[in-house]
């Protein structure tokens, strides 16, 4: 259902036409060109709610790589292609480092936490989070060991289901979630833990709802959360349940906290809260702890598990690629040794395939939108402070000027003529600049170790002809999620 359907949009226009106009539609004469907006709905009739990134690409054919699009009453600067995105987010990093405030998420999280914060709150929480993750081993041996342990548990789960039709969704999300749980909560959960499985189902449901056209509709017309609250009420109920779990975990940490021996992220945050107690400018308080833990729990579970799920589907569609990875694993690691990060530099083909999976699935095609932090001049245009900015990551990951065959799955995009791994500057699945994903290092480690461990032990097969596999995602306005599937796991 595309933005609740054209009929609903038409009704809104008729009811509210005399009340609203797109904000600042004519104040800034030197904004980039773009399609003429209609009252109230702006250019929404020109944007497909199921694939907005494709609509933006089509519009850029007419208006260029830097254009203005009105989403309801919100004026947005859309950046298309590697050069425009890189110039804005890297060369003008400070100006484009603001985070857009999504009314739906602001209401759910009350504006707290790392993901949606700006200004001093964002600086303090990001600096603290990056430092804490490094101290607990992001990119170091200790977290590598946690991932290796979790990969062993995941391998055993798949082995129990060998030769049976399996849905990989919760196998993978339980394993990936346990990695971030080890870092944030200081513990992993058994795969059969009913509450843990229930929480993961709530996370998965919320990601699907937020990514849906109806979820994004609330961000364009926030008042609809009160008028048509169905989807919002489900989201709020799920967030409340997850927050109750987080509150219990924080309470348990407070009762057993040792200031000299922090065990995990929560302990470190609680110690920081004590140190800054009484400071009026502190951002280290219960609300930010609660919301940031939720941010990490969600981001550390869904994006990596989705990438693994999509990646396995791709490897089943192209069994010759899967077989070539098997051969490289056998040659470099063997069947009896545990995959480790030290193996990656000796496995250029596997590394290239993992990078190509991330490029090709394009998990966040419209990025998480930014806002400008001050008035600025960009490519000869005047961009006001507070302008919504959409750096279209899809247009970077599929830029014809940067990739040999962007529409095809081609590991050669990351291999030189000698078969050695090569990086492409247009590889931006984690975004780039000051708002690049804080967990990028952890994510890269997880993807390599999980993929290597699974393919060391198993072959994955589609129950039908691989030619019938569709790699098209399900309908989504934000994240690209693979359609549900089952597969057969065969021990090697």
Q: What is the topology?
A:
Elements: H1 5-16, H2 52-63, E1 66-71, E2 74-80, H3 82-91, E3 98-99, H4 103-109, H5 119-135, H6 141-160, E4 165-166, H7 169-184, H8 194-211, H9 213-220, H10 224-227, H11 230-255, H12 265-275, H13 286-317, H14 319-332, H15 348-361, E5 370-371, E6 376-378, E7 381-383, E8 388-392, H16 393-397, H17 440-457, E9 458-461, E10 487-491
Parallel strand pairs: 2-8
Antiparallel strand pairs: 1-2, 3-5, 4-10, 5-8, 6-7, 9-10
Helix pairs in contact: 6-7, 6-17, 7-8, 7-13, 8-11, 11-13, 13-15, 13-17
Structural descriptors:
492 residues; Uridine Diphospho-n-acetylenolpyruvylglucosamine Reductase, domain 2; five-stranded mixed β-sheet; 10 strands; globular; disordered N terminus
Short recap of the structure:
The chain is an alpha+beta fold and 492 residues long.
Mind explaining what this structure looks like?
- Belongs to the cytochrome P450 family.
- Keywords: Endoplasmic reticulum, Heme, Iron, Membrane, Metal-binding, Microsome, Monooxygenase, Oxidoreductase.
- Heme binds at residue 437.
- By secondary structure, the chain is of the alpha+beta class.
- It has a domain at 1-108 and 364-397: Uridine Diphospho-n-acetylenolpyruvylglucosamine Reductase, domain 2 (2-Layer Sandwich).
- It has helices at residues 5-16, 52-63, 82-91, 103-109, 119-135, 141-160, 169-184, 194-211, 213-220, 224-227, 230-255, 265-275, 286-317, 319-332, 348-361, 393-397, 440-457, and strands spanning 66-71, 74-80, 98-99, 165-166, 370-371, 376-378, 381-383, 388-392, 458-461, 487-491.
- Strand 6 and strand 7 form a beta hairpin.
- Helix 7 (169-184) runs antiparallel to helix 13.
- The radius of gyration is 23 Å and the shape is globular.
């Amino acid at each position: 259902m595309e933005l609740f359907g054209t009929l609903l949009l038409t009704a809104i226009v008729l009811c509210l036409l005399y009340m609203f106009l797109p904000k600042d539609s004519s104040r800034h004469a030197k904004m980039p060109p773009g399609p003429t907006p209609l009252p109230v709905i702006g250019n929404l009739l020109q944007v497909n709610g199921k694939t907005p990134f494709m609509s933006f690409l089509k519009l850029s054919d007419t208006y260029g790589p830097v254009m203005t699009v009105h989403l309801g009453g919100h004026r947005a600067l859309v950046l298309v292609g590697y050069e425009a995105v890189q110039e804005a987010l890297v060369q003008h990093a400070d100006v484009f480092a603001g985070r857009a405030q999504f009314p739906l998420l602001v209401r759910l999280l009350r504006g707290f936490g790392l993901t949606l914060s700006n200004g001093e709150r964002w600086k303090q929480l990001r600096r603290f989070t990056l430092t804490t993750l490094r101290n607990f081993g992001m990119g170091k041996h200790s977290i590598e060991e946690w991932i290796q342990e979790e990969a062993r548990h995941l391998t055993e789960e798949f082995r129990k289901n060998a030769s049976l039709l399996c849905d990989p969704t919760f196998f993978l999300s339980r394993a990936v979630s346990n990695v971030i749980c080890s870092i944030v909560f200081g513990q992993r959960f058994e795969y059969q833990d009913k509450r843990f499985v229930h929480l993961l189902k709530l996370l998965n449901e919320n990601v699907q709802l937020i990514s849906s056209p109806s979820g994004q509709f609330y961000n364009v017309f926030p008042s609809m959360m009160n008028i048509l609250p169905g989807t919002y009420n489900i989201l709020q109920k799920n967030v409340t349940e997850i927050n109750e779990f987080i509150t219990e975990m924080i309470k348990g940490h407070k009762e057993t906290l040792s200031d000299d021996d922090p065990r995990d992220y929560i302990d470190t945050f609680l110690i920081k809260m004590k140190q800054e107690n009484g400071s009026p400018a502190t951002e280290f308080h219960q609300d930010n702890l609660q919301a940031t833990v939720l941010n990490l729990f969600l981001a550390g579970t869904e994006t990596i598990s989705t990438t693994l799920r999509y990646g396995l589907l791709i490897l089943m569609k192209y069994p010759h690629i899967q077989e070539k990875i098997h051969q490289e694993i056998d040659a470099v690691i063997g069947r009896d040794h545990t995959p480790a990060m030290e193996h990656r530099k000796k496995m250029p083909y596997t590394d290239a395939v993992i990078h190509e999976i991330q490029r090709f699935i394009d998990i966040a095609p419209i990025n998480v939108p930014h806002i400008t932090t001050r008035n600025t001049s960009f490519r000869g245009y005047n961009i006001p402070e507070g302008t919504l900015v959409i750096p279209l990551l899809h247009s970077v990951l599929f830029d014809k000027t940067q990739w040999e065959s962007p529409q095809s799955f081609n590991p050669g995009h990351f291999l030189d003529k000698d078969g050695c791994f090569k990086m492409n500057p247009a590889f931006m699945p984690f975004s780039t600049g000051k708002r690049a994903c804080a967990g990028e290092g952890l994510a890269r480690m997880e993807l390599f170790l999980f993929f290597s461990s699974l393919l060391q032990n198993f072959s994955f097969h589609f129950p039908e002809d691989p030619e019938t596999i569709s790699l098209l995602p399900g309908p989504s306005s934000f994240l690209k999620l693979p359609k549900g599937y089952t597969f057969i796991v065969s021990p090697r």
